[in-house]
Amino acid sequence: MQIVKKEFKPGIIILELGGPLQMGVECKQLELAFDQLLRDGQISVVLDLSKLSKLDSGGLGKIVNCFSRLKTAGGALCLAGTTGMIDGVLKLAHADRFLKSYPTAREAAESFSSSSASPASQIGLDS
């Protein structure tokens, strides 16, 4: 799996994931990327899944784990580019109920700065 880190604007990071996100090495790669983000104090993160080719239960679990770690740190995680099978996996597991998804990474990143609300309300957890 390829992970490309981009800074949309100061404090808002986009991670583009390419290839499969499956149990094992790919999950560990994502975990290490989030370890670094948290060490750097970067807690507003967009996961761009538009180039993701496969997502299994291990990969979904790792995304949920990353979401939880960011939320605990006072941040938020949004998804972007979820289509086809990836979108189906999120809906099947009901992860779409708490993982906010946008059509594009730009729209997801702009959602952080367009609202003065807390990260929890941006992702619909405090309603």
Number of strands: 5
In helices, the fraction of residues equals 40-55%
- What is the helix/strand order? EEHEHEHEHH
The helix-and-strand class reads alpha/beta
Note the beta-strand portion: 25-35%
Spatial strand order of the main sheet = 1-2-3-4-5
Poorly predicted parts: 116-127
Rounded mean pLDDT is 88
Largest sheet: 5 strands, mixed
Can you tell me the CATH class?
Alpha Beta
Domain count, please report it.
1
What is the CA–CA distance across the termini? Answer: 35 Å
Secondary-structure arrangement, i.e. CATH architecture: 2-Layer Sandwich
Overall shape: it is globular
What does it look like?
This protein is an alpha/beta fold and 127 residues long. 42% of the residues lie in helices and 29% in strands. The protein is built from five helices and five strands. Strands 1-2-3-4-5 form a five-stranded mixed β-sheet, with helices on both faces. It is globular. The N and C termini lie far apart (35 Å).
Task: Name the descriptors.
alpha/beta, globular, disordered C terminus, Transcription Regulator spoIIAA, 127 residues, 42% helix
Architecture blueprint of SSEs:
Elements (H helix, E strand, L loop, with lengths): L1 E8 L2 E10 L3 H15 L4 E12 L1 H16 L3 E5 L3 H9 L8 E2 L2 H9 L5 H4 L5
Parallel strand pairs: 2-3, 3-4, 4-5
Antiparallel strand pairs: 1-2
Helix pairs in contact: 1-2
Summed up, what is this model?
By secondary structure, this protein is of the alpha/beta class. 42% of the residues lie in helices and 29% in strands.
